[in-house]
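Your task
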Amino acid sequence: QVCHGLRTPQLPIWLCSLSGRHGVLFGTDSRLLSNWKTERVFHLYFYNGQWEQTKTAHLTIDTHSHPWEEDPHEDPSSPGKRRPPLEMAIRTKWAGATVSWNGTEPFF
């Protein structure tokens, strides 16, 4: 039998499989589970346990970014438009969100 805490997590957590690697994306604000108003600007953390990741990545997610400020004529596959798979995974829940890596070099 699965305990109550595993069926209903107290903090937001996602297990991710990106480019054949596994990791954990999680938040420390329990309001993300129950209050949509907290989804404006919030923090998530990512850890994959790989040798190239020396510390947990601290990400700031802004769901009210300004996508109209991007150049609409730029090719989506150009280097300026490519995003790490982790950012694309985050955007499956928060479409159009901007992701700040807060000084950490994006990986994956």
